[in-house]
Amino acid sequence: MNRRLILSLFCGLAVFAGPPHEIEGRVVDSQTGAPITHARVTLTIPQPGGEPITVMLLTDEGGAFDLKNAPDGNYQVMCQRAGYLPGYQGGQIPAAASSAETAPLIIRLTPQVAVEGSVVDEKGAPVPFASVQILRQTIVEGHRRTQMAGGNRSDDSGLFRIFGLTAGRYWVAVTAPSGSRRSKVAYPQVFYPRSPDINGAELMDLQPGQERHLRIRLPEPVPAREIRGQVAPAGDSVSIALRPADVSLFPQFLDFNNQWDQKTKTFKIWGVPSGVYVLEASTNVEGQQLQASMTLTVGSGDVSARLEAHPPATVSGVVRFEGKEKPPAPVAGIQLRSPRSQFNVQPDADGSFKFNGLPEDTYRLVVSSNGTAYLRSAWQGGRDVLRDGLAVSAESSPGPLEIVVGGPGATVEGTLDLPDSGQPANVIVALLRHAGNEMVLEKQSYVNRSLPAGAGLSARARAAGLPVMQGRSQFTIQGVAPGDYVLYCWEADSPVPYADPDFFPQYGTLGKTITVNAAEKISVNLDRLVPRIDP
After folding, report:
1. pLDDT tens by residue, 88-105
2. Which candidate, 179, 256, 165, 158, places its Cα nearest to that of 221?
3. What is the spatial distance between Cα 459 and Cα 115, in angstroms, rounded to a whole number?
4. Confidence of residue 456 (pLDDT cuts 50, 70, 90)
5. Which value, in Å, is the radius of gyration of the alpha carbons in the chain?
6. How far is residue 181 CA from its own chain's centroid?
7. Is 490 exposed, middle or buried (0-12, 13-18, 19+ CB in 10 A)?
8. How far apart are CA 123 and CA 275, in angstroms?
9. Alpha carbons 432 and 438: distance in angstroms, whole number
């Protein structure tokens, strides 16, 4: 039997403007290197002025595939196989003679992680239709955040299976259905194995290809309350949701039964254990989407609430430039960020901008400047937005935002002088500043390290007994505002919780402290890397 399964495009060579090529490759297991048979390989090749060509292949017994008559251009390859995470690869097929062939592709698929098991009640009976959620901790803008990585419901026998997960460290949380309104008790949310909060949960370290089997036993039911109230104004339909108030630990909505009565314009949510929650509603009134939100505490009795629905807020503003050497477009983009959402706009040629559809929150302002321009100040009325954030509230219309960009700012440049042994190819150079008891990312530079061979030991390296230096990588950060900063570098694929209060006391010696004055150029050498930090 032929060792390769060969499928060709149903097109003649005359269809393509350039000479044809052959794309060969193999699909292998990223952990063992073993060939993966019957993997589906999808190749997409764009065509100038026309629809892209898409071809699907199956790998043979040796994991190989072969595509003949491929045209010049960029291509994308996606590979799928049951039990593995999808693999992607792309590149440029070089323009060359028809006899030339591209280098064989090696696509490595990583075995997926799966979590399966059963949910039972306090007596060991199966619990159907329980919500099982897989949680992992990530780092978002320097803050540790817990996010949902996957989820499913148990079936009518209490069994569940969640698959397609990457390797990593996970928690498991379960919420049982709240049942009938007549019931005055409900199962509280439980974190595996049987903890009422995430701090007592087991953090499972799951490796590629691992399948973890769990038996999750619910705790004793607890007293449950009802939240009832009104939404005004209310359209033909109203959506009600309840989530924990602490978004840093558990940002998604909880699975409580609720009912909306269109006739009385009232809602009920039942089976709610005690705690602090955020109640949110959305409705459409005369074609306009309205939103409402409030924080409430559920204690020893039922809770009544009235939600006032408002259109999402609009924040308009203007960017002004003060200084010399104004770039053609001083600001490339403006962002408003909060733990739950992010919004982006580009200012118009006259510097004006507008954010639409902002929910109630306090946002951090991030301005991306061009060239040597830098953010000098931002005010919302008498509020210093750089210090206190931008406030969006339903009680009052947000005032205009005035952003002042100055220039020229300073330039911080330098080299990464890292040992070759065990060091990453791609590095982030981060310029951080102190803001209260945490660090804030001011600017950053992505460095793809160049490591030319043949560089010998420096005198300093010899004296310190360090590994051979392969070379140096350059970085440049422009448009730095005057002030005091700390420079760090870390692996590009390993975010660092720099905003945590304990980060600087623990890793401060790995950074370089600098003081920046306007329009000056500072050269810095970085020779230490922040180690990988588990979220």
Report:
1. 887 665 544 334 455 678
2. 179
3. 53
4. very low
5. 28
6. 38
7. buried
8. 25
9. 10
